[in-house]
């Protein structure tokens, strides 16, 4: 278990003579746990440690203006953590206990209630690990683990972490079947364990999967979004997650995407998840215009793929080693200038394609291809 | 006061002392010896008996002449002066031993109490002479059973004794004084500046 490694690191850190050095090592170990739970997070170290009023770390997320203070706590006693929540709860922080919070100790129930009411997350490496462990068998759980630091609330110890992860993975599978009962149970756990903004977002994911699976938006058993379509910031959240290779998921959440929307969506395209999203929905992404620019060999960040989808110059594009193909729904949307050199005709394109390994969509007509402007730079 | 109540009162005092110290804006890190993992940072051994003693609270100061220096504190949450005199002299002996064992991590020794004590010799509380007296009283734990006052006096390093005296703080708190600290609003401005590089 990862939490056991964390415990060993703490022991090692504490074995040094000088507590100032120990503290630096402890904070680094905590940051590793945080980054494992949520790879999107940016962490700022402060000079403080276990201070009553000042955070140890400040957590931020790019593309999202949320900021959350994290206070490391050396004593997992629920009574002391209760005092901390009482003092700091109005800032909705994370209290990261170096030891697991024992649910059998006096004051646990009171702490749990006040933490949930004040949108404060009280957790530990053991709580985060319990959620993260579920990611091995159910990659979709990383949505919940990544959302936890940003909007989790209440006491998330080992048991509660497992409970959240189970509820989310079962809820996802239920949404895939458009099963209202199990989906509703997941929605309840989400509402209980996350603040409003994060529970809305996680609910949006479940609803998108629900709708993508043929369920009606209005019959979704959780907090329902009228549009049932994921907003850009929800896609940004998904794309910034660690490699999430679940073709079914990407297909279900991306059914309403269009080339136009992808072109203007401010998201990270270097993530493998962007490739999964596009590849999972190629059958519904319609492009009527394509402009191809050839170029010298280039290094691109598609993780050794020969081709990678990207956004470039406000357009969706497929980048290869020697060319980039820009696609658009309308010719007015083409923002890439054609080079002056003579391009090739549509017929020539089809002839070359027929003699190459390229597989053309059968719906592509020769006339349509004829409208493409193909050129070399 | 029964043992458990005394223990709870002691812990409450240490928690209050930590909060007050943190409120001064001159502490960056602090921990109690009841925190798992922190006790060993505050624990030392009497040289002869081998038994342990520990301070209640420790941490790191910030700013000005105290920047990045370490403190250890003994907290006495008592409402009478009874017994505080001998306890204080025992504490002085502990400070000397701690400094002798690891001078690098014992920059400041704080005695934090809510009740005055030894008022007739108040100006002598942080002097080498009183440290010598404390060591002499604890000589059996330091030098072994049967050691004499002369043995203790001969064992004491005067330079170290003077150095420890310079490290001593005596702080007498009151409930009102615990509230006479920077306001939440002003603290928020300082912390925002320090942790996020700007104003709230």
Features:
heterodimer, A: 377 residues, alpha/beta, six-stranded mixed β-sheet, five-stranded mixed β-sheet, 15 helices, B: 200 residues, Trna Endonuclease, Chain: A, domain 1, two-stranded antiparallel sheet, globular
Structure description:
- The complex is a heterodimer of chains A (377) and B (200).
- Chain A is built from 15 helices and eleven strands.
- Chain A has helices spanning 2-14, 19-37, 78-88, 108-117, 125-137, 142-151, 158-176, 180-193, 196-212, 232-239, 247-253, 259-264, 272-280, 346-354, 366-371; strands at residues 41-45, 57-61, 64-73, 94-97, 121-124, 154-156, 289-294, 308-312, 315-319, 323-328, 373-374.
- In chain A, the strands form two sheets. Chain A has a six-stranded mixed β-sheet with strand order 1-2-3-4-5-6, with helices on both faces.
- In chain A, a hairpin with a 2-residue loop joins strand 2 and strand 3 (64-73).
- Chain A is elongated and about 80 Å long.
- Mean pLDDT of chain A is 85; it is low at 361-377.
- By secondary structure, chain B is of the alpha/beta class.
- Chain B has a single domain, classed as 3-Layer(aba) Sandwich (Trna Endonuclease, Chain: A, domain 1), CATH 3.40.1350.
- In chain B, 44% of the residues lie in helices and 18% in strands.
- Chain B has a five-stranded mixed β-sheet with strand order 1-4-5-6-7, with helices on both faces. In chain B, strands 2-3 form a two-stranded antiparallel ribbon.
